[in-house]
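Sat 14:20. Reprocessing the chain from the morning session after the first attempt stalled halfway. Input below, unchanged.
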Amino acid sequence: MQHRTTISKYIKTSIFTFFLGFLGLQTFAQKVKIDGVAVVIGKNIVLDSDIAKFKQEVEVRSEGKVKITDCEMLEELMQQKLMAHHAVVDSVNVSDAEISDKVDRSIQYFTQQYGNIEKVIKAYGFNDLEDLKKELTTVQTENLLIEKEQLKITEKIDVTPEEVRLYYNGLKEKGELPQFPAEIELAQIVLTAVPTKEETERVIAKLLEIKKDIEEGSNFRMKAIINSDDPGVTNNGGEYTVTKESAFIKEFKEMAFTLDVNQVSKPFKSEFGYHIMQLHAIKGNTRVASHILMQPDVPDSKMNELKEKADSIVLKIRTGILTFDEAVKKYSDDADTKNSGGLIINPSTGESKFDLTRMDPAFYARVSDLKKGEMTDPFYDEERSGDKMFKFILMKDRTDTHVANIIDDYVKVQQLALQKKKEETITKWSKEKIKDTYINIGPTHSKCTFDKNWKKAVNK
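Finished this time. Tokens:
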């Protein structure tokens, strides 16, 4: 079970990347001619090349820790295709908006990886952006079907305290208790630099000037490349596809759905700075729009003043004049942490604990040597929004790497027990569904030995 679970973990991260790699310019019909069909499940097909590519990707992502056979790889892929097939049979609903959002996120991810969208298109052998989007739509539709079918199967699964205890004792008896990595809990005080009124007025005036130029015929893309502070502008000229479900800031989406085609907005403010936007097209529930972002500058003199203020606050805390919590309430500008004693929430988990080994390297370097109750010195930071600030960090709590115990790690053990129960539920579901599903295993893999009874349903 543990081996299968490990494979599945890497399968989920590998499927999306390698689908792109072998979809490319070839049509599906061409692929079938030059590539063997390993198995057919319902209307879904697994090719021999799928097995080889996913197997290689799993081994690369696991840094060689997971070694699997072609037959094991095929069974994992068959499980995915079985889920996708029955999601359709069960009329699982996947909306166009959900798919579009996933596709947009995927394009943004690959653009960040390769530098610009043209390099992505070339790397994966597509004709153009629309060709790439078409294939991404196919991939993400299946991914969403699988995710929703899994949720449907396991939505009512839960574990009782007794089940958690039995699960823990079972691991302990077999000498298989997991080792949990070092975790830390952090709090911060943030002092944000605020631009002067004159600088803000200068930015707004400049955007109004650009707006006028565009309305008189200037090219929006060129104006964006020259003026915009959006880091993605060199790749996309400031153009984005927007849906109401997209992961854009509220102000950006609202403006995209307010404008008429070709209309240029007045300057509007967001947490990133000041924007103007032009709407290019309306496609159902989707908008295609471009924006120019400008962020007001903060002079060095103001930054020096802010640094001196941060140093004085640290000194007051270290000498006992103020407690950290008092300083947070009195001085911190961070709205997300000001009312919780500065406590930083891990965006990946929604909890306050951070896995020390999985932190950003630069941040890790700042806090890794801190003991409980110690603080960093003030340091400069700049957010993705362009905000400039000085901040310092308190190590609120720290737990070193250790073998799991039921008292300190109950929540983690509970999560592991719940995951195991869900996997067992899906396995039971699969064994039942295999009986009623058309499955045809090709001759190359007909001699494979599987955990589930895939062969019993062959040609059914």
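The two ends are 28 Å apart (CA to CA).
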